[in-house]
Automatic annotation (TrEMBL):
Organism: Halovivax cerinus
Gene Ontology, cellular component aspect: plasma membrane
SUPFAM superfamilies: Nucleotide-diphospho-sugar transferases
Protein name: Glycosyltransferase
Main location: membrane
Subcellular location as annotated: Cell membrane
UniProt keyword terms in alphabetical order: Cell membrane, Glycosyltransferase, Membrane, Transferase, Transmembrane, Transmembrane helix
Length: 423
């Protein structure tokens, strides 16, 4: 068995491509500047769909919004959350800015729809019920709206509780995303892949023309349950509005405390992304924003490309190419350390996460593939009865898992052939 340079040519080419893309995004991100214009004289409405929130934490969260002095705070509360309804109505009685909608409807999309239709503000902020604002969050996210072409603004997110490994790894992901991807896209194309629903801020004229479609969206004939933020981001940009990132507006978010919940959420988020990106290409408008189109395609292909390194590593070990395997391992750690620089410069001792984040990124690739093959499976982890959407979960998971296994086996067979053929 002879391992020549040709054996590892696919891995080398993919590595050069990924480093080229990353370098380009970093350079573009460095051209980003937050909006510094004085905030326009506008009214602001906060709309918060509430479902199974902790009552004490929710009330504390509400007051972080209230301290920013919005004109109104509308909570759309599921009818089953009796304690939260009782406590929020106490606020309604004492403060003119508060109003409440008690809803029997399943799902976040109908809650957002009803809240937006009730809202009267020039700017409407859609906020998750566990997201806390800082003292200047609202002032800062209003600044971009001084530009009349801006229809949506995404603040910066920071994971507030990082007491578990899963939460720390999620903060790594958020830190890289908001240090590189968001500023790069916002700077070069005034567009975003997603204005995250944690706090998504919209101009009234932009959102009111698409909000009715939010509750009726379908994909391949099925009603779409989650991915409200992806839909609104796509629909608003399709109508010609700009979506921008404002790094000086900061929100504090929660994160799944355990790996199982985080993986399930990642599957759901990835499905939402795949569906929305496919719709953007189908609708055609995304080609008017060429950098966003390129970003979406690159992100999709990278899901498969990242599989090459761990498969090469594993097969190198089985083929007895130990020096090659060690070289791949060392390169992983060095390259990830460089790419994690936004996190490593923000957190002392962050280097301890480099090996775990490296392993985690490779382990998540099959998860992304699973999401791809089950992209039309609908449902939430926490809202309503998810089993009523699509075909039975057990059969769906079996078919999807077999499909992912087939892709991995094909890739492994191809690389194994490269390692064993003499050139």
């Amino acid at each position: 068995m002879v391992a020549s340079a040709l054996t590892f040519l696919p891995l080398a080419l993919v590595g050069l491509w990924r480093w080229g893309v990353w370098t380009g995004k970093v350079l573009l991100a460095r051209t980003y500047r937050p909006f510094t214009d004085d905030p326009p004289d506008v009214s602001v409405s906060v709309v918060a769909p509430v479902y199974r929130a902790d009552p004490d934490d929710f009330i504390d969260t509400v007051f972080t919004w209230f301290e920013n002095d919005p004109d109104e705070i509308i909570a759309v509360i599921d009818e089953g959350d009796r304690e939260i309804i009782r406590r929020f109505y106490q606020l309604v009685e004492n403060y003119d800015e508060f109003s409440c909608i008690v809803t029997p409807k399943d799902g976040k999309r109908p809650a957002l729809h009803d809240g937006v239709r009730r809202a009267e503000g020039d700017i409407i902020a859609l906020v998750d019920d566990d997201v806390k604002w800082r003292s200047d969050t609202m002032v800062e996210f209003c600044r971009p709206f001084a530009d009349p072409t801006v229809g949506a603004v995404s603040p910066k997110q920071i994971v507030s509780d990082q007491s578990t490994l899963a939460q720390r790894l999620y903060e790594v992901q958020m830190r890289l995303q908001f240090a590189i991807d968001y500023p790069a896209l916002s700077s070069i194309s005034r567009s975003l892949s997603c204005v995250s629903g944690r706090t998504a801020v919209y101009r009234r004229e932009a959102i009111e023309t698409v909000i009715d479609d939010l509750a009726t969206e379908t994909f391949l004939g099925k009603p779409v349950i989650s991915g409200d933020d992806k839909f609104l981001t796509r629909a608003i940009q399709a109508n010609g509005w700009d979506a921008v990132y404002q790094s000086t507006s900061v929100i504090d978010i929660g994160a799944a405390p355990d790996a199982r919940t985080f993986i399930n959420q990642t599957v759901r988020w990835t499905r939402n992304t795949i569906r929305s990106d496919l719709m953007a290409f189908w609708e055609g408008w995304v080609f008017r924003r060429k950098w966003l189109a390129y970003y979406n395609v690159d992100r999709f292909i990278a899901t498969f490309a990242i599989l090459l390194a761990p498969v090469y590593f594993t097969l190198s070990l089985t083929a007895g190419l130990y020096l090659v395997a060690v070289g791949i391992l060392v390169w992983w750690l060095l390259s990830r350390s460089v790419k994690m620089y936004p996190y490593l410069t923000a957190y002392t001792g962050g280097f301890s996460l480099v090996p775990l984040y490296t392993i985690g990124s490779f382990l998540m690739s099959p998860v992304y593939l699973y999401a791809l093959f089950s992209a039309n499976a609908q449902g939430w982890l926490t809202r309503g009865d998810d089993t009523r959407f699509g075909f039975p979960p057990l059969r769906r998971r079996l078919v999807t898992s077999l499909s992912v296994g087939l892709v991995l086996a094909t890739l492994a067979g191809y690389i194994s052939l490269l390692l064993t053929v003499r050139y």
